[in-house]
């Protein structure tokens, strides 16, 4: 095999660069064009040694495979698109990592887009993505603009919704029940004897469902909906501090603060410390998400653990099965959750 691109394409009298072709890759790899085509389009059915030779030749030549070309056997793009609200949120980042790793292991590439929590932005992204003929789409959440749902249903492209639960997904779903999480948090804190709750909450549709679950259990016990300070997305430590300050400055008494994210809970811990309040002695604090830092703050944060990477991996597995025509045991996968009791509550 040549050692450089210059060995593959000797200098030409023409100033115009020549596009690298599949035949060029085949010549460099010492293989037939059809073998190179198969190694690029369906690597799972080609010997690993051959795939390695082809990839080395691709890297050397700088060839960009046209996976939609008629000469490729699979007629697939080998591209899966995912739309997430943001990447600064570690929960979504871990799901994307699990999704991308699993897809890459099967020869697929991940195209990532950010909706910034905007249904209109998501709708625009879905339209743009579908025009590029992906083999599958992964969405965050189950609430979409009507035109988005219509496009997805008419596109005949496998779709997996994530990070939520509904009996009527667009196609497939990997997630968990936010309502049940809210119920579980309420029952846990009530069982610990807390009754005077305050909420530091994000203005987010999934957080709103957790709040409904929480307040439904309080209502069963004859307790009123607790005071709440709603903060904009994305949630941060600063907003958590501001939220607790707002609640405490209202003059009401609290024995537990429930937060819609660990970032907010971390801010609540900081503000409580600044005001000389002991956690959990004067004030219990509950978070959500079980981010990496939650176990290492002082005090450590009680939270709700979600297997974030598993959501991505299982979403990839569902797409790959559908693309390959394999039957699914169920189109709806509930990954569940675990309440993690630590020092703060």
TrEMBL record:
<dbReference type="GO" id="GO:0000976">
    <property type="term" value="F:transcription cis-regulatory region binding"/>
</dbReference>
<dbReference type="Pfam" id="PF13377">
    <property type="entry name" value="Peripla_BP_3"/>
</dbReference>
<dbReference type="GO" id="GO:0003700">
    <property type="term" value="F:DNA-binding transcription factor activity"/>
</dbReference>
<dbReference type="InterPro" id="IPR010982">
    <property type="entry name" value="Lambda_DNA-bd_dom_sf"/>
</dbReference>
<keyword id="KW-0804">Transcription</keyword>
<keyword id="KW-0238">DNA-binding</keyword>
<protein>
    <submittedName>
        <fullName>Transcriptional regulator, LacI family</fullName>
    </submittedName>
</protein>
<feature type="domain" description="HTH lacI-type">
    <location>
        <begin position="20"/>
        <end position="74"/>
    </location>
</feature>
<keyword id="KW-0805">Transcription regulation</keyword>
<dbReference type="Pfam" id="PF00356">
    <property type="entry name" value="LacI"/>
</dbReference>
<dbReference type="InterPro" id="IPR028082">
    <property type="entry name" value="Peripla_BP_I"/>
</dbReference>
<dbReference type="InterPro" id="IPR000843">
    <property type="entry name" value="HTH_LacI"/>
</dbReference>
<dbReference type="InterPro" id="IPR046335">
    <property type="entry name" value="LacI/GalR-like_sensor"/>
</dbReference>
């Amino acid at each position: 095999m040549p050692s450089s691109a210059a060995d593959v394409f000797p200098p030409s009298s023409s100033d115009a660069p020549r596009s690298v072709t599949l035949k060029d890759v085949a010549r460099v790899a010492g293989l037939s064009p059809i073998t190179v085509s198969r190694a690029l389009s369906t690597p799972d059915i080609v010997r690993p040694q051959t795939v390695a030779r082809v990839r080395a030749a691709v890297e050397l030549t700088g060839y960009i495979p046209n996976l939609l070309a008629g000469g490729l056997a699979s007629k697939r793009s080998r591209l899966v698109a995912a739309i997430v609200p943001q990447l600064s949120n570690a929960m979504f980042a871990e799901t994307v990592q699990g999704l991308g790793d699993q897809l890459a292991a099967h020869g697929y590439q991940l195209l990532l887009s950010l909706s910034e929590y905007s249904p209109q932005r998501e709708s625009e992204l879905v339209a743009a993505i579908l025009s590029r003929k992906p083999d599958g789409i992964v969405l965050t959440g189950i609430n979409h603009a009507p035109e988005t749902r219509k496009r997805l249903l008419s596109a005949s492209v496998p779709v997996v919704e994530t990070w939520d639960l509904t009996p009527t997904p667009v196609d497939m779903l990997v997630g968990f029940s936010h309502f049940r999480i809210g119920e579980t948090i309420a029952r846990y804190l009530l069982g610990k004897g807390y009754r005077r709750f305050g909420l530091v909450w994000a203005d987010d549709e999934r957080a709103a469902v957790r709040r409904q679950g929480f307040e439904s259990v309080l209502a069963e016990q004859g307790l009123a909906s607790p005071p709440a300070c709603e903060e904009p997305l994305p949630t941060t430590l600063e907003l958590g501090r501001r939220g607790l300050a707002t609640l405490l400055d209202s003059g009401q008494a609290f024995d537990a603060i429930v937060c819609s994210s660990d970032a907010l809970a971390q801010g609540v811990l900081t503000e409580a410390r600044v005001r000389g309040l002991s956690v959990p002695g004067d004030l219990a604090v509950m978070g959500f998400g079980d981010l990496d830092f939650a176990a290492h703050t002082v005090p450590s944060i009680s939270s709700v653990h979600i297997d974030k990477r598993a959501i991505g991996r299982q979403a990839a597995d569902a797409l790959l099965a559908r693309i390959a025509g394999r039957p699914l045991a169920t189109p709806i996968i509930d990954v569940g959750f675990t309440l993690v009791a630590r020092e703060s509550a």
